[in-house]
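Input record (one chain):
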Amino acid sequence: MKKSEKITTEKSLTKGEIVIYRSPQGPEIQVKLEKDTVWLNLNQIAVLFDTHKSGISRHIKNIYKDKELERVSTVAKIATVQIEGGRKIERKIEYYNLDVIISVGYRVNSKRATQFRIWATKTLKDHLIKGYTINKKRLLETREKLRGLQEAVAFLQEKSKHKLLSGQEQEILNLLADYSKTLSLLEQYDKEKLSLAKKTKGKFVLTYEDAKQVILEIKKNLLARKEASGLFGQENGDKLRGIIGNIYQTFGKKELYPSLEEKAAYLLYFIIKDHPFVDGNKRIGSFLFIYFLDRNHFLYRQNGEKKINDNALTALALLIAVSDTKEKDKLIKIITNLLAI
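The corresponding structure, as predicted from the sequence alone:
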């Protein structure tokens, strides 16, 4: 078996994912967590220990015969779809939990089983001496999220000193507080729910014609209140059409910005940063951002509050305006997380 080969249990086991074992020459085994343990079928255990299925079956029978383990608590029958004769056939296959896998590992006579025993013994020893074992993958993920939070803090602190943001210090502080809520690192880490932002799918598709109509209505209202000039909303070339096209662009039939959060964030960012209008870019970007979220029924939290209130949106628009283009990813991350609260 090649080093890169992986084994996973069927999709019917849906809780979490954990790496059990990987030898320098052998496979990486990834299985699903269910009822606080992991499960492999007979074929997978045979692959894990690089031996014949018949030998594994014999060892399992002896484990139960010797009453080393109780069958009722260590075996689960799981429905699995197989292709037989060109047809999809659903069969119930027996899966064995981690207790059985470890017991078999101490009985099998193979090089890979020996490597497994060495690994298992060391892991158990570490756990007994240190009181814990380290999941390196989860630890690295947590460090990455913490680094993202630290970058957001540093970015907002730096921009709050800009003269155009004078008087917006409290709103920036509120943005930071809301952003940090979405990461709640320790709590989410413990509950294995660590994520950067939700991936909501929006149903409403913003078109160039929609945007033009919204801008026209905004302009009428602002002109009536004498809060805009005739240049407000006047297009600068064909940039607006390009921006709207960009948030829906695909590559290999897959959207580059698949989530509602990403589309909204990039819409706000590009309209403010790319100046598609002679005048009013920040206000138009903010209005279209709100319009897009509202049409997708994503503007408000469950308690009725706006996910990003008017003052916070003003601060965000100014942050985008004074930011360097190299800081785009930081701003997109901040906006998507604010929307995910």
